[in-house]
Every structure is written in C-alpha cells, then in structure tokens.
Design a protein that fits this description.
The protein is α/β, with parallel strands linked by helices. The protein has two domains: 4-173 and 224-252, NAD(P)-binding Rossmann-like Domain (Rossmann fold), CATH 3.40.50; 191-222 and 255-323, Alpha-Beta Complex (UDP-galactose 4-epimerase, domain 1). 39% of the residues lie in helices and 19% in strands. The protein has ten helices and 14 strands. The strands form three sheets. The chain has a seven-stranded parallel sheet with strand order 3-2-1-4-5-7-11, sandwiched between helices. Strands 6, 8, 10, 12 and 14 form a five-stranded mixed sheet that branches. Strands 9-13 form a two-stranded parallel ribbon. The chain is globular, with a radius of gyration of 19 Å.
Length: 328
C-alpha cells in the first residue's frame, strides 16, 4: 500500500529536500504549499496540492483525498527581523496555521506528526551547548511561535493521542549533491547563499551584522547542519513514530559552532574567490551563540550528520548556486 506523507512547505528549501528523502525511503510525499516562498519547480517527488494553512476547508480536502499516514510540517515564516517588527503576523501565520493543520490531522485520524521546530526557542544562552532539556527563552516572535506549536502538540498528544517528533535544529546549509533541489529564496536572507551571491557578483557585498559580540572574533556563532543530514533525521523520526515509539524531542546539530567570519574564510578556500564584505550594526533578536548537543538523535535514531562539514556544505551550495536552477 502506498504510504502518503503530507509535507507542508514541500516546495521550500528544506521541505523539497525532505520530499526527495521520503521518496528514496519508499514513501510518497504530498506537498502542500501556498508558493508564497516556495517554488513549483521544486515539487519533483510526488503530488502537489496548492493551498494555505489558514484555509481549514482546503486542508481537510487534502487529507480526504490522500489519507496520509503522517504529517511532516515545515511551512512557516521565519525571518527574525520581520518577527521583531511585526510579531502579529508570526503568531497568526505560524500558530493559527499549525492549529488548523493539527486539528485537521486529528480529525482525519492521522496521528503521527513530525514538526520542524528551531533552536530559536532557546533564546540567547551564550557558551552553553543546548540539548533537549535546556530551558527555552525565545527572543522573538518567530521562536515564540515555534515554542507555542511545540506546546500545542503536547496538548493534542495528551487529549487526542497525537504522537509527535519535534526537531529543534540549527542553521541549515548545503544542497542536494545530485542537483535536483537546492536553496533559493526571494528575498534571500541566509548567510551562505548571500555570501555566494556576493562572491558571484549578484550583490555588491555581504553585510555582516555585528562585529562586537562576545565571541572569539566578534561575530555571531552558529551550528550548521547539512540539509540532507537534516532531512535524513526527519525520515528517521517518521519511522520512530511508525514503530510506536511515542512522542519525542530531538536537537539536530554537530556540537560545533562557526562564527560568521569563519564561514566567510572557509568560503574563500572552497570557491577560491574573495568575498566582498560590509560590516553593519547588530540586528535586534539575534542570539550571540547557538550550538547543539545531538546525542539523543544519535542514540535513539541512529542519526549521523556525516555531510555536515563546513567545506562540504559550502561546496554543495556553490555547485547548486552556479547551476542557475529556479532563477527566472
């Protein structure tokens, strides 16, 4: 029997890679996306249903048509600067959209739910390796909205038997090494693709926000995970739920942080090109350092982030960047 998995945000960066991993693992991903930030060209591995999570009736139609065995929920808005300026939109889109999805899932009898949360739920805990038991003190409406959805899943688990795997992950980078999908946003906000644009002359320079943080070189430190390692964990999380293991939270990272300057230095080595840089002020809502401990995912899911080396993440992203996919 075909195992359909409903993938919200499946036309986006991480969601499209997840669809590829699901197909390779024997599932049929059904992408649900409003294409506000996703790309129709990225939907290559299963059926596509256009729709918005604000439309409960449309969600119910999709559940009735495909009868998915599980949901993999990526769809969200996620820009820290926008979350600081316009928190209401983040609560409305992320939280109310997730509520519609969760209620529709329960109503359809689909009781396995994989949720992409974020390290932003932890806030700023400088010098601490963050794990599943670390206190959560988000700094902005993006992190707060994701934490609210985590709590919502707990409530629906207690009242309706909804089983969930929650992944709190750190900065995602790289691209599918086979070149079928990759990272492409409009507008672009992520460090590595912005940096590659600057290297390639598609923007005048890369802006580094803040050089006076209490880190080894004054710039923010983040833990980076290769997108294909990340989606492998999501497939493993789905199998965990299918095996009846119950709800669980997992952090996904490498345990090593890179500063913005270190990422720039590594890109010079990988691409053999210089990076034009402008140094700007700090952005409100940015944490100093976010680094993950992922021992639980390694132990319980057998997860190994084997591709998550900075050189490989940049090299895969650079290959995708030069291919010109999705550019129109």
């Amino acid at each position: 029997m075909t195992k359909h998995v409903l993938v919200t945000g499946g036309a986006g960066y991480i969601g499209s890679h997840a669809c590829k991993a699901l197909k390779a693992a024997g599932y049929t991903p059904v992408t649900f996306d409003n294409l506000a930030t996703g790309w129709r060209d990225a939907v290559r591995f299963g059926p596509f249903e256009e729709g918005d999570l604000a439309d409960r009736e449309r969600i119910d139609e999709v559940f009735a048509r495909w009868r998915p065995i599980a949901v993999m929920h990526f769809a969200a808005i996620s820009l820290v600067g926008d979350a600081m300026r316009d928190p209401g939109t983040y609560w409305r889109v992320n939280v109310l959209g997730a509520l519609n999805l969760i209620e529709a899932s329960v109503a359809a009898g689909c009781k396995d739910f994989v949720f992409s949360s974020t390290c932003a739920t932890y806030g700023d805990q400088d010098g601490v390796v963050l794990d599943e038991d670390s206190p959560q003190h988000p700094l902005n409406a993006y992190g707060k909205s994701k934490l609210a959805i985590e709590q919502m899943l707990g409530d629906f688990g207690a009242s309706h038997g909804l089983n969930s795997v929650i992944f709190r992950y750190f900065n995602v980078a790289g691209a599918d090494s086979e070149g079928e999908v990759g990272e492409f946003h409009r507008p672009e906000t992520h460090l590595i693709p912005l940096m590659l644009d600057a290297i390639d002359g598609k923007r005048p320079a890369l802006t580094v926000f803040g050089t006076d943080y209490p880190t080894r070189d004054g710039t923010c430190v983040r833990d980076y995970v290769h997108v294909m390692d990340l989606v492998d964990a999501h497939v493993a999380g789905l199998k965990w739920l299918e095996a009846g293991q119950g709800s669980r939270v997992f952090c996904l990272g490498t345990g090593r942080g890179f500063s913005v300057r270190e990422v720039i230095d590594q890109s010079r080595v990988v691409t053999n090109r210089d990076v034009p840089v402008i140094f700007g002020e700090r952005r409100a809502g940015d944490a100093v350092s976010l680094v993950s401990g992922s021992e639980r995912a390694r132990r319980d899911l057998g997860w190994q982030p084997d591709r998550s080396h900075m050189a490989q993440m940049i090299a895969d992203a650079w290959r995708w960047h030069q291919s010109g996919h999705f550019e129109k």
